[in-house]
Write a structure and sequence with these properties.
16 helices, heme binding, oxidoreductase
Length: about 475
């Protein structure tokens, strides 16, 4: 009798599992009518994860969006959307997927990027949004001081020295240095900023070029993490001490840190001091990594394409020469077109950005998506929509000189909606100024592009973390 009951129980369980994980997702799920590239997608997410691991997911998504249209099913409860309508509906207000929780720092301390809860994210964003606003950054005397220090006193001498001794440079690494120096100055004040640019990545170690045969890049194992967690937390502690003791701000104030620290310190009931410091450190380190990688990736590929075209360099140099305000470069059409096209073809954050459909579900492209459906878009796929961007694999900045509204709406260089990159205007200031400093003074050419191929991963940098360019004085410089 017991054996019979056990067999009946096992049979019932097998029937239930077969229905739940095989029959229902294939035949009865509300997602069943959405085109699916592979039958395995009906029953498992592991097929798309496998493709992601193999760096084949982006091209797989691109192929089947072109074949099936703007909405495809990529898992039992997952869809991919590739349309302006999708961006508008999905990325305006939907909650982030739990996928983002992995991006915490300090053993689980959250930051804005890793925060899934929409309300908590909004509270923290309100604290910092003012100091990242375009209008604030454009009129900020502190940004002008930081720009002058980082570019005029650090980067320009390095570029001139490299040009004079004809020494090539790994531009990916060099502009990681520039991004970290600039961000740390804005976060902690110029007096506490890093000095990686002029010190070749080594703090407190001056840069010497005894042998011009070697490219300008770090060989020190310690530099695999330019700004580790303990250094960020130590800077937060030192900066907090300076604020608490009302020490003079120095050359520039610690703008980002002071904003966060003051807001968290004013909460009621009060937070433990260590919690405040760790929260600040987690946010600032996340933003620093985003700045370091995003800015360096963008500049690497912009300079890659410029280095392949002397004519494009000449056009940019002529436009730079016509500029009257080094602190406001947003009106230079070719410069901005170059940046837009680089971010279109080489977006640093190329991976899918998953969101969850609301408790009431969502109707998208005439298909009902039930609650908790994972919905995602990828800038890699969006930016290769051939109906919007003709000949999408070709680097053509001129397409942006007379861009259609559809091109602008489909461009997703910094995301969109309430969760778009908070530092987009900050990054653009650095990218514009860097290109002006380089191509207003020197010309570049490719020496070694081995390792410069862009990965097809969530954060898409050069595979070998390098692009080696030659540097020479521009005519008249």
């Amino acid at each position: 009798m017991n054996l019979l009951l056990s067999l009946i129980g096992l049979g019932a369980l097998a029937v239930f599992l077969t229905y739940r994980y095989l029959i229902y997702p294939i035949f009865f799920s509300p997602l069943s009518k959405i085109p699916t590239p592979n039958p395995l997608c009906y029953i498992t997410d592991h097929f798309s994860r496998y493709l992601s691991w193999r760096e084949q997911e982006f091209d797989w998504l691109l192929k089947y969006h072109r074949q099936y249209g703007p909405l495809i099913r990529i898992g039992p409860t997952s869809v991919s959307v590739n349309s302006v309508e999708g961006l508008r509906q999905v990325y305006t207000s939907l909650e982030k997927h739990p996928f983002y929780a992995q991006f915490t720092n300090y053993n689980g301390m959250p930051n804005m990027f890793a925060t899934v809860d929409h309300q908590r994210h909004s509270v923290q964003k309100r604290v910092l949004s003012g100091i990242y606003a375009k209008s604030y950054l454009q009129r900020s005397e502190d940004i002008k001081s930081i720009s002058q220090d980082v570019f005029d006193q650090r980067l320009t001498p390095v570029l001139g020295h490299l040009a004079d001794i004809q020494r090539p440079v790994n531009v990916f690494e060099l502009f990681q240095f520039v991004a970290i120096d600039f961000y740390s100055a804005y976060a902690f004040g110029l007096d506490r900023s890093t000095h990686l640019t002029e010190n070749h990545g080594h703090e407190n170690r001056p840069y010497h070029a005894a042998d011009s045969r070697y490219i300008y890049e770090s060989k020190d194992r310690r530099d695999h993490s330019w700004f580790p967690e303990d250094e960020c937390l130590a800077l937060c502690r030192a900066t907090a001490k300076g604020i608490d003791e009302k020490q003079p701000a120095g050359s520039t104030p610690p703008i980002i840190f002071e904003k966060m620290y003051s807001s968290l310190s004013a909460q009621n009931p009060p937070l433990p001091h260590d919690t405040i410091l760790l929260t600040c450190a987690s946010e600032l380190r996340d933003e620093l990594i985003a700045s370091q990688e995003g800015i360096a990736i963008t500049l690497t590929y912009a300079m890659y394409h410029l280095s392949k075209s002397a004519h494009l360099q000449s056009r940019l140099r002529a436009e730079i020469a016509s500029s009257t305000d080094i602190n406001d470069l947003s009106s230079l059409p070719l410069l901005n077109a170059l940046i837009h096209e680089t971010l279109r073809l080489h977006a640093p954050g190329a991976g899918r950005q998953p969101r969850l459909s609301p408790p009431s579900g969502l109707t998208l492209h005439n298909h009902y998506l039930p609650p908790n459906t994972s919905i995602s878009s990828s800038s890699y796929v969006l930016h290769r929509t051939s109906s919007v961007y003709p000949d999408p694999e070709t680097f053509n900045p001129d397409r942006w000189l007379d861009a259609s509204e559809e091109m602008k709406r489909c461009w997703w260089g910094f995301g969109s909606g309430g969760r778009m990159c908070i530092g987009n205007h900050f990054a653009e200031i650095i990218i514009r100024r860097a290109l002006v400093e380089v191509y207003g003074r020197v010309e570049t050419w490719i020496v070694d592009e081995k390792g410069s191929e862009q990965t097809k991963t969530f954060l898409a940098g050069p595979r070998g973390r390098r692009l080696v360019l030659g540097v020479g004085r521009a005519k008249g410089q």
